[in-house]
Amino acid sequence: xxxxxxxxxxxxxxxxxxxxxxxxxxxxxxxxxxxxxxxxxxxxxxxxxxxxxxxxxxxxxxxxxxxxxxxxxxxxxxxxxxxxxxxxxxxxxxxxxxxxxxxxxxxxxxxxxxxxxxxxxxxxxxxxxxxxxxxxxxxxxxxxxxxxxxxxxxxxxxxxxxxxxxxxxxxxxxxxxxxxxxxxxxxxxxxxxxxxxxxxxxxxxxxxxxxxxxxxxxxxxxxxxxxxxxxxxxxxxxxxxxxxxxxxxxxxxxxxxxxxxxxx
Length: 264
Ligand code: PXL
Description:
Blueprint: E1 3-11, H1 17-28, E2 31-43, E3 49-54, H2 57-70, E4 75-78, H3 84-97, E5 101-103, H4 118-128, E6 134-135, H5 139-146, H6 154-167, E7 171-174, E8 184-190, E9 195-201, H7 211-224, H8 229-245, E10 248-249, E11 255-256
Parallel strand pairs: 1-2, 1-4, 4-5, 5-6, 6-7
Antiparallel strand pairs: 2-3, 7-8, 8-9, 10-11
Helix pairs in contact: 1-7, 2-3, 3-4, 4-5, 5-6, 7-8
The structure holds 3-hydroxy-5-(hydroxymethyl)-2-methylisonicotinaldehyde (PXL).
């Protein structure tokens, strides 16, 4: 059994964050271990506003010690990292244990185009993304990492992918969205030599909570199983398409993707 260590936040509502990782790993057949960096709660009295409760850095470090000194892993994956200190710790961990890392550079929850903390974008750009084997920014995150205005075309996605590769990330996957194309789900892959563009029809649904996390988690799982990044991305794209097709409502505010869809 291949093992992945996820350093990410808990999405209390269950579709994104560490919950998305564990569900995707279970479906794909990889063993997941988690070090929790922060807890995101959603407030039903405030239109489902996301409230973020970071963990103490010492608590994060204790979990990482359990996993890396106590067990050992084939791959590390990062998601929401709430403070500069934890971002630096993630980068140091990759270095110290010589890990292959999939970095999902989470800056905000869906629909919120303000980074949780602007200094985190800088730390991701300067210390963590340069150590990534694969990084998977969405359009907003890619624009922040590449220091570009908000991306709205495939050409700009490619330019951002190139700039992020120049930071040091070996493989860059920029996840598309309706700001680029309302009909097609377009993702751009770049490895420093060639661009590969992946396109699917967009599934008309609002039940997409957790889509970005689940896609990145599936890429991590296939990579841990030995697939190269391009192949991992193709398989992950199939995985997330099915999960989106069978997304479902949680409440009046949100619906989640459904990783289980890949079994049926
Ligand atoms: O989708 C980004 C994301 C990542 N991680 C956690 C989250 C969210 C969005 O809700 O809660 C923990």
